[in-house]
User: Which sequence fits this backbone?
């Protein structure tokens, strides 16, 4: 596995992550890193999504989701699962799902 591999990973972020522009900041950070995927609020008060792109950029985004988030957010836990190598990106951009 190299940093050039395209990977896909699902994530769920817990804490004070709704009503604090978390999705908007996540979309902006993902686009800045050249990633594709999606982000959405859940009924349980968490934020759910998927990241796809070069391994090193996905890892950078995972760190951002774990420790930074939006300015008013308070992240208590970040879960990442279903990490896999993909042959091509399954999304064309980084979207906020309503």
Assistant:
């Amino acid at each position: 596995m190299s940093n050039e591999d395209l990977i896909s990973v699902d994530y769920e972020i817990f804490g004070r992550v709704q009503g604090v522009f978390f999705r908007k900041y996540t979309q902006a950070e993902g686009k800045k890193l050249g990633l594709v995927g999606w982000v959405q609020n859940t009924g349980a008060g968490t934020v759910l999504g998927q990241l796809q792109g070069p391994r090193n950029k996905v890892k950078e985004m995972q760190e951002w989701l774990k420790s930074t988030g939006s300015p008013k957010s308070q992240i208590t836990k970040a879960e990442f699962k279903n990490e896999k190598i993909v042959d091509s990106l399954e999304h064309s951009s980084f979207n906020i799902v309503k």
Notes: The first strand starts at residue 6 and ends at 16. The mean pLDDT is 96. The CA atoms of residues 68 and 75 lie 8 Å apart.
